[in-house]
Here is the input.
Amino acid sequence: MTDSNAVFAGSIPENYDRHLGPVLFEPYARDLARRVPAAEGARVLEVACGTGIVTRHLRERLPAASRLVASDLNPPMIDYARRKLQETRGIEWHPADACVLPFPDESFDALVCQFGLMFVPDKPAALREAQRVLSDGGAILLNVWDSLDRNAFAKAAHETIASFFPDDPPTFYQVPFSLHRTDTLEDLLAGAGFSDIRIDPVSLQGESPSARDLATGLVEGNPVGNTIRERGTASVADVVKAVAEALAREFGDRPVRIPLHAFDVTARAGAR
Here is the structure.
């Protein structure tokens, strides 16, 4: 995986966790973790763990004797998560590419992935790897965002950012909202050997202290901020200000409340 839109390094992990985590990812982390089977001795792998938002909820839900492995493509994200959760026992941290998981066949009973599959260039390969490392009947549990049109906060950010670069706008926001067709998801999972596929829409609400705070996350909590700096034709501060103004117009301010739309996906690994 070498797509620059999937590289979360430098100051991105901190901005992601501080400005986007409580607003976008905590609501769905709670929802996702509660769906994970909490059997005694369960072996759970989290892929694309980011800054450990779902990881913390998984560790709280699973029995103490369960094994929890948290992995991510980006070592800086894992480093941030490890520091944040250093007082939490029972988490193994592993840098890992979702397409080449460094684990034996059938070594987990559940695989969890929050808003990560969209960033994987070779999705069939990643799902085949998930199938490989899951035990017979093991569960894959993930979520994906609904479309950009359905998530107005992201559309506002994307369009505002693009207005600074009319000839070649940053492409980041095309990625996280690209896997919203349920028929595509079903085909990908079935093609990798999964069965009992269930896809459910889940609408929640996110709340940020201010439009400025959320705008900071939407620009600096992902690779967009670095893209702006590399191009040098607009300042990050001006872009954040414009995004904050767009969010405040549409959703209010202090606090800003935004509707969130995503899908929960659950399937079972087949027999080898």
Notes: The chain is about 40% helix and 25% strand. The mean pLDDT is 96.
